[in-house]
Amino acid sequence: MEQLPKVVIKGIPSSSRAVIHADDSLGGTRYRLLVEGDGLREVIATYGVDGTRTRSNNTTEVEKTLGIEAARSTIIHEIAETMSGHGISVDRRHLMLLADLMTFRGEVLGITRHGLARMKESALMLASFEKTADHLFDAAYYGQTDEISGVSESIILGVPMAIGTGFFDLVHKVDWRPLAAPRKLIFDRSEFHVKLGDS
């Protein structure tokens, strides 16, 4: 008898709860099914479920089911929802930049020291985030070199970073010929001068 509540008769075993939500915000009543648990692939494959309107907040599961671009979209949506829930508005382009940084390797990487270590092999960039002494000691011990191509490394060393106006060098050919003697302006001639007090 104690085993009976654990038996799945119908549905998705990895989903623990489902709630029907009525949404009246767009005029007519629309119903949403909010599901707790995993199983995005099974939910989308369920008869009657519109896969184009199905969302998940599990970025890893979205990546495995729908691919890296869908995971990127999920990251943007979830950060925007979290921020707006606290009354904070963030320009969508900033969220897109963060999502691009987290997914540009073809897998979802977190903005943690482990994710950053997998993104780039820069000792200074890793040292600027967490465990500064450990990263610097390891870099010195293993003789690592750094190309100083990122923002963090450039700020640490006080050199212009390779973005915006620092992205390129300006080369100007200097002509060392002496400048021509300045010409007299037409109004410097005495015939154009008017003495005050003369009528």
Characterization of the model:
The protein is mostly helical. The chain folds into three domains: 8-54, no CATH class; 57-109, no CATH class; 112-161, DNA polymerase, domain 1. It contains eight helices and two strands. The chain has a two-stranded antiparallel ribbon with strand order 1-2. β1 and β2 form a beta hairpin. α2 packs antiparallel against α3 (68-85) and α3 packs across α4. The chain is elongated, with a radius of gyration of 32 Å. The mean pLDDT is 79.
Count of DSSP strands: 2
Question: Which percent range fits the helix content?
Answer: 25-40%
**Gross geometry:** elongated
Q: Determine the mean pLDDT.
A: 79
- Lateral arrangement of strands in the main beta sheet: 1-2
Q: Structural class of the secondary structure composition?
A: mainly alpha
Order of helices and strands: EEHHHHHHHH
Range of strand content: 5-15%
Ranges where pLDDT stays below 50 over 5 or more residues in a row are none
- Radius of gyration over all CA atoms, rounded: 32 Å
Summarize the main sheet.
2 strands, antiparallel
Number of domains: 3
State the end-to-end CA separation: 123 Å
**With helices defined by DSSP (H or I, 4 residues minimum), what is the helix count?**
8
GO biological process, one term: DNA-templated transcription
Organism: Amblyomma triste (Neotropical tick)
Subcellular location: Nucleus
Pfam families: RNA_pol_Rpb1_5
